Design the sequence.
C-alpha cells in the first residue's frame, strides 16, 4: 500500500497535470506513478521529469521554450509515448557508457573543480583547489608508466587534457587511479568516502554475473549514494 507521503504527492501533482494534460498523457502519467510509487526517490525523480517536460510543452509557443528545453534537457513528449506497448523509461535499457563514463564521472570532475554549470561553488568544501587538481592530473599521467596496457588505454593528465579522455579512459581512471590520487585531496574526507562508495558500486555493476541479491544491493546502495550526494 502506498504511504501517506506518496498518496499526497500523487494527488497534488496528478491534479495539477490533469488540468492541462490531454486525457491520454494524464493516464500514462498515472501509470508510471503506480509503477514507481514503491520508493520515494523513484517517485521524486519521476515527478520532476514530468513537471520539467510539462513546463517545456506549455512554453512551446513562448520565447522561453528554448531556454527551458536547454535547462531541463527535455524538448517535449516523445512521439513514441503514444504506443501502449512502450513505457518511458522502463522499456529502454540504460546505456552504461554514456550514463556513467561520459556523464556522471565528467560531471563529478566539473563539480569538484567548480566548473559545473552556473552553480555558485565559492567557498564550498567539495571544491578541489586548482593547484591540488594540477597535482592530481600530473600523478594521473605518471601512472601510465606502471599500469599494464592490458588494462586499457592510458590516461593523460586529467587536469590539462580532459578533452582527450574517452569513456574507456574515464573508466580506468575511476576504478584504478582516482582512488589513489584523490585520497587526501578534499577539504573534508566525507567527499572522498562518498566517491569510494560510487567506485564500489560501479565495480558491482561490472561483474560478469549479478544475482538477485547483488542486484538488490546495487539498487539500495545507489539510492543511498544519491541521497548522500544531495546532502
Sequence:
Amino acid at each position: 500500500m502506498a504511504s501517506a507521503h506518496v498518496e499526497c504527492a500523487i494527488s497534488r501533482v496528478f491534479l495539477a497535470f490533469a488540468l492541462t494534460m490531454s486525457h491520454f498523457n494524464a493516464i500514462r502519467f498515472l501509470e508510471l506513478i503506480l509503477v514507481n510509487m514503491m520508493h520515494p526517490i523513484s517517485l521524486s525523480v519521476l515527478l520532476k521529469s514530468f513537471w520539467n517536460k510539462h513546463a517545456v510543452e506549455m512554453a512551446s509557443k513562448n520565447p522561453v521554450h528554448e531556454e527551458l528545453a536547454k535547462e531541463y534537457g527535455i524538448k517535449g513528449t516523445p512521439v513514441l509515448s503514444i504506443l501502449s506497448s512502450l513505457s518511458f523509461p522502463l522499456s529502454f535499457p540504460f546505456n552504461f557508457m554514456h550514463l556513467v563514463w561520459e556523464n556522471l564521472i565528467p560531471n563529478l570532475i566539473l563539480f569538484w573543480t567548480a566548473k559545473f554549470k552556473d552553480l555558485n561553488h565559492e567557498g564550498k568544501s567539495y571544491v578541489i583547489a586548482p593547484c591540488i587538481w594540477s597535482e592530481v592530473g600530473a600523478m594521473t599521467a605518471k601512472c601510465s608508466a606502471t599500469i599494464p596496457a592490458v588494462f586499457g588505454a592510458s590516461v593523460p593528465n586529467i587536469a590539462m587534457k580532459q578533452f582527450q579522455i574517452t569513456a574507456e579512459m574515464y573508466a580506468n581512471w575511476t576504478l584504478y587511479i582516482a582512488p589513489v590520487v584523490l585520497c587526501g585531496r578534499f577539504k573534508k574526507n566525507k567527499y572522498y568516502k562518498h566517491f569510494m562508495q560510487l567506485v564500489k558500486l560501479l565495480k558491482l555493476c561490472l561483474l560478469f554475473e549479478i544475482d538477485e541479491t547483488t542486484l538488490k544491493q546495487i539498487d539500495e546502495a545507489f539510492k543511498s549514494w544519491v541521497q548522500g550526494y544531495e546532502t
In short: The chain has two domains: 4-82, 96-230.
